[in-house]
C-alpha cells in the first residue's frame, strides 16, 4: 500500500466509524480565532463557558473586544483557565488584527466585522508567518486560525496527531511540529475541507481510543492499520 493510499484509507476508516465532525465550533471567523487561543492548555468544555460569557456581553467582534480593558477581558474568559495570560494573548491578537486592517483592509470598519475581512483572501504561507510574530500565537494556534477560521489549506498538528502518527509508525518519536505537518501534507491532497475533517477525526480518535495512558487499541477505528 502506498503512503498516500494508507493515509486516505485511515481517513475513510475514521469517517465511516465516526461520521463528519462539523469542526470548528464557532459561528464566525473571529469566534473561531478566539477559541483557538482559549483552548490552549484546557478542555473545550471550559472554552465553551468562556465563549458563552463573551457572547452574552456582545464581545465577539474585534472592535467590541478592543473597547474593554485587558482586565475586563480576563474576567470574561476566566472559565478557560490561565485567564490573565490568555487575555494578554487575545490583546496581542487584537492589535495584530487592527494593524492588518490598516495595511490590507478598510481600517477600523473591518474591526466591526467578525468575518475578519482583513485576513480573507490572503496567501496562506505569508499570513502564517505574520501570525507567528504575535506573542502567544504558536504554530498550532496559528494553523487552527488559518484552517478553521479562514478555510486555508494548512494541516493542524496537536498532541493527538503526534501520538497517533507515532503509534502507527508514521513518524519518529523526536519528530517536531513541522516534520509531523509535512508527513500529512505530503501524503494528502491540498484541500482545506479534507485537512479540517482529517484533523478533527484524529482528535476524536485520540480522545476516545488512542489515549496517552491505557489506549483502547482493540476497539479503535484505526486498529486494522497497526503493524
TrEMBL record:
One Gene Ontology term from the biological process aspect of the record: base-excision repair
Residue intervals of the HhH-GPD domain: 38-208
Gene Ontology MF term list: 4 iron, 4 sulfur cluster binding; catalytic activity; metal ion binding
SUPFAM superfamilies named in the record: DNA-glycosylase
Highest taxon of the lineage: Bacteria
Keywords: 4Fe-4S, Iron, Iron-sulfur, Metal-binding
Statement: the UniProt record of this protein carries the keyword 4Fe-4S: yes
InterPro entries (alphabetical): DNA_glycosylase (IPR011257), HhH-GPD_domain (IPR003265), HhH_base_excis_C (IPR023170)
Protein's name according to its UniProt entry: HhH-GPD family protein
Species the sequence originates in: Desulfocurvibacter africanus subsp. africanus str. Walvis Bay
